[in-house]
Amino acid sequence: MSTLVLLTLTGLGVAALYLLVASGLSLVFGLADVLNFAHGLFLGVGAYATWWAADNLPGAGSDGFGFVVAVAFGVLAGTLVAVLVELVLIRPLYSRTIEQVLVTVGLSLAGVALLQATWGADARPFPRPSWTREVTGVLGANVPNAGLLLIVAAAVVLGGLLAFLHWTRYGLVIRAGVENREMVTALGIDVRKAFTLVFAIGGAAAALAGALGGVYFGTVSPGQGGSLLIFAFIVVVIGGMGSVVGSAYAAVAVGLLQQFVNYYGTSGLGDICVVGLLAVVLLLRPQGLAGKVATA
Amino acid sequence: MSVEPVLTVEDLSVRIAGLHILQGVSFTVAPTGVTVLLGRNGVGKTTTLRAIVGLTPRSGDVRGTIRMGVQSLLARPTHRLVRGGLGYVPEDRCVFAGLTVAENLRLAERRGSTPAYDKVFALFPELDRRGRQRAGSLSGGQQQMLAIGRVLLNDNRLLLVDEPTKGLAPKVVTEVAEVLERVAESVPVLLVEQNLAVVRRLAKDAVVLSAGKVAWTGNAQELLLETALTKSLLGVGSGEVHA
């Protein structure tokens, strides 16, 4: 029983990480039709900015309120980079898919190279509050607090995102734009503002994933964003482009599948099963679990 | 004394994906009543409306002159044209299926102006009753009413309405025609319509397109009296019009 609980909660922790990355990715693709391969860069920036801030930013630290300040700084840095990327690089290329892919792939490679050149290729120990290194007993299982932190953070982000999408004017514009962007403009709405907004939201969530991923893994490295991005893309495709709720379901399915198969099968088999799940979904329901129409 | 047109289209050419869809189209829209844009399938009626409202695909090439009053519309982004009073009801309605009726209407509200819900609900009481229903679950006629209602929430200087009766039951066609008749009392309408009974009921002026060019312009009722002309231009005699 305790093994099941541990595997489930660990799987949900990984799912939370995927969801934080995938939710922004999904909204950006659903609304703006941009396949953003540079999304992992926002995660990397968030992680490194948090790591840097914990040691160097006045008021920030690796424990207590100081750590909250460091994470806030990391999220802010990721958000700013995302907004800059949208305004400077993506905006001139809307409706030019191939150029977008080239730019975002190039940016992700350049971003990793820049992080490596600045702080080295090796993984660095990540500043972690002491309580995140401990475990909490849940139904007889000792669950790492870092995983529980990820679950809580993802749940709060998901709730906040859904509230934003349902109860605000911009949320309404985003939900409508995911369905039919052209018609949104034909109602007199400048949809480009919503593009910038979804990049900002996606960048913030990815940067938070970077900071909390650092806490979860205990280290930060330049390639971390890229490896998580692969699974985030799988989550987005399974969940349905543009659907945050679909991404949440898909993230849980992928996270749990990985954990259980890796434990009861062979280590690494979980990743293969995830790819198998992706293939099955693409064959049986190519629009994903929630499709492009349902957005929340 | 000549009356200034609300819309002037001069020498409009549109190329999309290598196809020369509109080839020097020129016409005007009177400041009152309904001007109907007619023609067989594929002659460029929808392309004309989309060019006016700035929705030609980016890969397309639009040349010529489009003016609303003295203001040039070409090269202005769609959302600015719409905010400037150009209302657009697209072909196939394009309601947001995943949003509720109320959300569809709320989306059309414009900052700085009071949305005319009273007017819309007076024309379409059904929309008021079905506010919480998802637009995707409405019937075709109800979706059309929502698409028109969305535009009527705001003041417009000109309405572009693309095939509003397409695919609707005869009873609903009559209802939609009645609404457009009332709407046209206060705002000029450029209408694309295939149903000649609706054209006969609504249209004052007509512009007929053929193979991307203007083939005929003039009084719509006179056109409908010319059976041979309607047969040659539209492929259907006015005598075949169903009510």
From TrEMBL, chain A:
Query: Which cellular component appears as one GO term in the record?
Result: plasma membrane
Q: Does the keyword tRNA-binding apply?
A: no
Any one GO MF annotation of this record: transmembrane transporter activity
A GO BP term here is: amino acid transport
Q: Name one Pfam family in it.
A: BPD_transp_2
Give the membrane topology: Multi-pass membrane protein
Q: Does the keyword Hydrolase apply?
A: no
Q: Where in the cell is it found?
A: Cell membrane
- Annotated transmembrane regions: 6-27, 34-53, 65-89, 101-121, 146-165, 194-217, 229-256, 263-284
Keyword line: Amino-acid transport, Cell membrane, Membrane, Transmembrane, Transmembrane helix, Transport
Recorded family membership: Belongs to the binding-protein-dependent transport system permease family. LivHM subfamily.
Q: Spell out the PANTHER family in the cross-references.
A: ABC TRANSPORTER ATP-BINDING PROTEIN, BRANCHED-CHAIN AMINO ACID TRANSPORT SYSTEM PERMEASE PROTEIN LIVH
Protein name, entry field: Branched-chain amino acid ABC transporter permease
Which organism is the protein's source? Micromonospora sicca
UniProtKB/TrEMBL annotation, chain B:
> Which SUPFAM superfamilies did the record assign?
P-loop containing nucleoside triphosphate hydrolases (SSF52540)
Q: Which InterPro entries match?
A: AAA+_ATPase, ABC_transporter-like_ATP-bd, ABC_transporter-like_CS, BCAA_Transport_ATP-bd_LivF, P-loop_NTPase
What GO molecular function annotation could you give as one example from this UniProt entry? ATP binding
Q: Which PANTHER family match?
A: ABC TRANSPORTER ATP-BINDING PROTEIN, HIGH-AFFINITY BRANCHED-CHAIN AMINO ACID TRANSPORT ATP-BINDING PROTEIN LIVF
What's this protein's name? ABC transporter ATP-binding protein
Give the UniProt keywords, A-Z.
Answer: Amino-acid transport, ATP-binding, Nucleotide-binding, Transport
Residue ranges of every copy of the ABC transporter domain listed in the record: 7-236
- Kindly indicate whether the keyword Transmembrane helix belongs to this entry: no
Family classification: Belongs to the ABC transporter superfamily.
Cross-referenced PROSITE patterns: ABC_TRANSPORTER_1, ABC_TRANSPORTER_2
Instruction: Give me any GO biological process, just one.
Output: L-amino acid transport
